[in-house]
Amino acid sequence: MFKRSIDLYLKKYFDFKSETTLDEFYPVAIILVLINFIGEFLTRGTERLAIFPIDNIFGIVFGLISLFLLIPTLALLVRRFSNVGFSWRLFVVLLVLSVIPFIGWFARVIVILIVIQAAGFARNVHLNIGNTTWYKK
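The structure corresponding to this sequence follows.
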């Protein structure tokens, strides 16, 4: 299951339009969380624990891995938003809001809730702001 999910994740590197099932999403999300945890431990955790005196190397490697995984991760999240029934515009707005202090926590929680919720529940939610429809009909 993990191998198939990772293969699809990397094959759909620039694919922002197709679908992502939960079977494809969750294994990749688990692996990305583990990569992030290990990277944070090796770059920031080493300052406190002093396990590795050369933590700049880990920072560079983790930065390169993060840059490599940035586009497929964004594509995965946009496809998941689309599956749940929301437009990619809402994802972009929440992504921009997530970097603003205090507001960012709420935006991140909304992204997490939207990504993991079932498609049937999301179809009952309509977000219309001005002339822009944030919910894909």
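Confidence is low (pLDDT under 50) at residues 118-130.
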